[in-house]
Amino acid sequence: MRQGKDHYFFFSTLSMQFIGALRAVPEGVAIRIDVSPGSRYCGVSGFNPWRQTICIKLTERPQMGKANEQLVKYLALLFNKPLDEVQFISGHTSTRKVVLLCNTVVDEVESVINAAVPK
Q1: What is the DSSP annotation of 25-88?
Q2: pLDDT tens digits, one per residue of 39-94
Q3: Whole-structure pTM over 0.85, yes or no?
Q4: Where are the domains of the chain?
Q5: Domain 17-116 -> CATH class
């Protein structure tokens, strides 16, 4: 078997694609998100490996909590959850947020985000 850095990297990317962005907690999954408000479309735009965040674009501006409301509605729709199962842990006034998705597992979140990322 081949030894080396590239072999280790290949193995680590297979085990978990969004390393650092998703964390299992007793209530569900905590997701580290980096939002871009005021974009042309609303959706998942990718993964930032340096910040270890899922990048999500929002059409609403960050005024009067409209972008946060749109983020909660978008995540609830994306994961087919009621609005009360998507909760902010931190980042109410920041572009970097941590959101709790209740009653779910990391594998499910990972597969839904993979499907939502534009190819």
Answers
A1: ETTEEEEEEEEETT-SS-EEEEEETTTTEEEEE-SS-SSTTHHHHHHHHHHHHHTT--GGGEEE
A2: 999 999 999 999 999 999 999 999 999 999 999 999 999 999 999 999 999 999 99
A3: no
A4: 17-116
A5: alpha beta
